[in-house]
Amino acid sequence: MASLRSLEPEVRSVAQQFVAFLNKAGVRVTVTSTRRDLDEQARLYAEYKAGRSKYPAAAPGHSTHALGIAFDLHLDPPLYPQAGALWESLGGTWGGRFDDPIHFDLRRWYGVP
Fold first, then answer.
1. Per-residue pLDDT for the chain (113 aa), expressed as one digit of tens each?
2. Are 100 and 70 in contact, with CB atoms under 8 Å apart?
3. Cα(4)–Cα(25) distance, rounded to whole angstroms?
4. Coil, helix or strand at residue 104
5. Which helix (H) or strand (E) holds 70?
6. Could you tell me the maximum CA-CA distance found in the chain, to the nearest angstrom?
7. Domain residue ranges of the chain, discontinuous segments joined by +
8. Which of 46, 48, 44 has its CA nearest to residue 36?
9. What single-letter DSSP state applies at residue 91?
10. Which 3 state secondary structure label does DSSP give 33?
11. Which of 8, 53, 79, 81 could hold 48 in an S-S bridge, CB 3.0 to 4.6 Å?
């Protein structure tokens, strides 16, 4: 299980509040990925390109995870749209808009397209 502690401080604070809110609402949440180095991103990208991952991964150097402004969550799949809508209401970007429902980031806060 990954820790939100590796995220940038502003992102970590919002992410912790988001996860705490989901937990209080009875949603079981597991943080599965946060900040990644280039080697880890390259491994995930290779797995995705080879068809061995059901979730997309950005090419190394193009991931918001490397910037420490993104995290992935595991929760009951039918709840992703509601969690994504909540995250977007906080100013975040939800990966469900681009076929990556486990992905949550705050790219807009950092001027990342």
1. 789 999 999 999 999 999 999 999 999 999 999 999 999 999 999 999 999 999 999 999 999 999 999 999 999 999 999 999 999 999 999 999 999 999 999 999 888 88
2. no
3. 19
4. strand
5. strand 70-74
6. 38
7. 4-110
8. 44
9. T
10. strand
11. 53
